[in-house]
Amino acid sequence: AALELARHLHAELYAKWKALRLPASWTPGHPAPPVEPGWQAASVPPSLRRRRAELIVAASDTAVIWRGVQAGADAVVLDLDDTFSPRAGNLWRAYANFQTFAAVPRPFLTRVRPLAHREGRVSFDGQPAVAGLLDLAVYAHAFREREIVLYLPKLDSVPEAWFWKRALELTEHWLGLPAHSVRVCLQIETLPGLMN
Question: Is the pLDDT of residue 196 over 70?
Answer without folding.
Answer: no
